[in-house]
Amino acid sequence: MCVQVCPTGIDIRDGLQVGCIQCAACIDACNEIMDKVGYPRGLIRYTTERQLSEKENTRVISPRLFAYLAVITILCGGVIYALTDRVPLEIDIRRDRNQLSSVNNQGMIENSYIVKLTNKTQEPHTYTITLAPQEGLSLELRFNDVPLEAGESFDMPVSIYGDPKVIDFEQTSVTLNVTSEDGQYKVSKQNVFTTQGQ
Ligand code: SF4
Description:
Number of domains: 2
Largest sheet: 5 strands, antiparallel
CATH superfamily of the largest domain: Immunoglobulins
Structural class: alpha+beta
Low-confidence stretches: none
CATH architecture of the largest domain: Sandwich
Shape: rod-shaped
CATH class of the largest domain: Mainly Beta
Bound molecules: iron/sulfur cluster
Helix content: 10-25%
Radius of gyration: 34 Å
Mean pLDDT: 90
Strand content: 25-35%
Number of helices: 4
């Protein structure tokens, strides 16, 4: 019967063969016949060589299963966290490569940067760039607001000025904050302000 039901014409009694499409029709046919003649089911079945040699049943619940479940749970948790925690606003800060710093005509030490903003939402937003407060440092922007369409990027020239009468460092970390007009999206990025290289 198992040979007659096989769609690929395999005689499974000769063992597993390369033409088998794993449809399990022979297993059902075999079990049906075994039921009728009163013999145990499973003459044809999915099994392993180890199980056949050791004659032990496959343990469905095993420490390895719990280990796999734990790994899958951690991976799924990480993916969900990454998706839900993702801020659809990107900021990248590049320093002026030509000069580390310069002094303007008011005697202030200037560091220049290009701040690249990318609106990764599906709607237009207007973003504001601010400098995290730091004594002696101030921010100058070419535009106060940066309106961006959905998916649009913009390179904004930005200067940070240091008052040499106030600052007493050669180099410090500075943080630029970008906030959408409704306050829904906020990102921050650090860079360096230096008094060297004039
Ligand atoms: S599983 Fe399907 S294809 Fe494979 S031997 Fe059995 S009946 Fe044939």
